[in-house]
Amino acid sequence: MGWVLLGLPLAVPLAFVGGCGNDDGNDSTTAATLAPATLSDTSNNGSDSSGSGGASTGNEDADTTAGMTTEPTADSSSGGGPVPEPACGHQCASAADCMVEGNDIGLDCLSGLCGIACTDDDYCIAASSGWLIVSCTGDGDCEGGACVDIGNGAGGCSFVPAQGNCADVGLVQMQWPAIGGGMITVCGQPNGRCGDFDGTAACFVGCEPGGCGDMTCEDDGRCHCDFDLHCVEAGLGNNCNSDGLCEIACQQASDCPATGFDGGTVVCE
Questions:
Q1: What are residue 188's phi and psi, to 5 degrees?
Q2: 184 burial class (0-12, 13-18, 19+ CB within 10 angstroms)?
Q3: How far out from the chain centre does Cα 112 lie?
Q4: Which of 110, 126, 242, 250 can bridge 268 by disulfide, Cβ–Cβ 3.0-4.6 Å?
């Protein structure tokens, strides 16, 4: 498994995962995001090195980094490919397990994973832009913002450039349909994506070509690694798994860093 679905409303900037949003190769974004992430992204941007499976800061030699394997052992049962390693994750039983410091941050428990369910990219653009926090029927409901179409005739309050610099909240200027018709300029996260993660459709913030540093932004919207060292240097874990995604390899749950969620269970599997 090796990941959790994670997101926060616009007012609470967050380090994100799963996709990537900046040019330095680190999957962390300053915008609110809803994405699959290694546990390192939920609390310390991957720099927690406590426990044998904790992610390295990237300063030590790759061959001695705790938990990092540069030469995976061959698996004779799968034709000689790398043996899948247990990885850190978080499992929830209810939405209450996805709260942070007693605050409902808009996450549901989706098949044991904290995230926001989706059916299309547009919904995830709205979610990762923070437009789902306050519902509206017109601009008057938005205290200076604009009421935009978030799908199925519903409206959500958006942040607009007249209120301040979009970049200050990790967003960019973009055109979007207003609830009353026509296009308006708002602050949003255009890389919001709806992706399938082990059968769960959930929102995440995707990467842009060239935005993954030494890794590659592929068509699934996620930064793909080739080596464990890619993950260590980006602060996204210590293992590049067989799918080309970074995770925190572990031997037991105590090797894994805390997630920041109020409930649920940290697992190594």
A1: -150, 175
A2: middle
A3: 16
A4: 250
- Tell me what pLDDT residue 186 has: 97
Length of the chain as a residue count: 269
Tokens for 12, please give them: 């609470």
| Contact predicate 200/110, CB 8 Å | yes
CB 133 within 8 A of CB 23: no
Pairwise CA distance, residues 209 & 199, whole Å:
26
Cα separation, 156 vs 38, in Å, equals: 30
Does this model's pTM top 0.70? My answer is no
| 207: nearest Cα among 75, 67, 26 | 26
User: Is 4:113 a contact under the CB 8 Å cutoff?
Assistant: yes
Place of tokens 């992430």: 37
pLDDT in tens, 6-53: 333 322 222 223 333 333 333 333 222 333 333 333 333 333 333 333
Of 156, 126, 162, 129, residue with least CA distance to 141: 156
Residue 82 tokens read as: 């790398």
Sequence letter at residue 179: I
Whether the Cβ atoms of residue 250 and residue 256 lie closer than 8 Å to each other: yes
**DSSP per residue over 209-247, as a string?**
TTTTTTSEE-TTSSEE-SSHHHHHHHTS-SEE-TTS-EE
